[in-house]
Amino acid sequence: MYLSATRRTRIAALCTAALTVAGTWLGVAQPANAATALVTCPLGTETITYTPGLKLPAVPPAPPNPTVSLSASGTLATCVSLDLQHTSGTITFTGAGPLTCLGGNSSGSGRVTWSNPGTTPSDFTFTGGVSVRPNGVTVLVLSGNVTAGDFTGAAVVNTIVLASTDLTACLTPAGLTTSSGPITLTLASP
Question: Which candidate, 88, 70, 71, places its Cα nearest to that of 79?
């Protein structure tokens, strides 16, 4: 029996909702500080632009903690939500901070625009950090809160694996000006 992607997503969301309700009804213990995921979007892509380009801290000599502006846009797909209305969309954000090719922090704001009719975009603020993980993968993690729209007050975690990071660009005069990769977005109750 063939099920469309939309139907599979809805079935998965219904199963998740049913298990959550059943776990609550049966008294399954939850950690006291556990947040409930309102929406999880595990499949997406995002491209980030940096101005000026990211460089290694000492190439060329720069002031300590140079400020870099960043802007990003991406798509969210196969989102799972308890209400079945937030199943896909787009995400954008802008920010700035002392960033280099080896890491740093930023802060800013963004918006998730949901594809389904009848939904309202979720505006959020964030602080974030770029780090190179032990396996050599560069990861940007943004965390903050939804400030307006659907899910106001929810916690936001956006994890972007910068898979196409060309670290050799960090040695050029222009620096690394763009990177992209898969993202995972989660909105959870505070």
Answer: 88
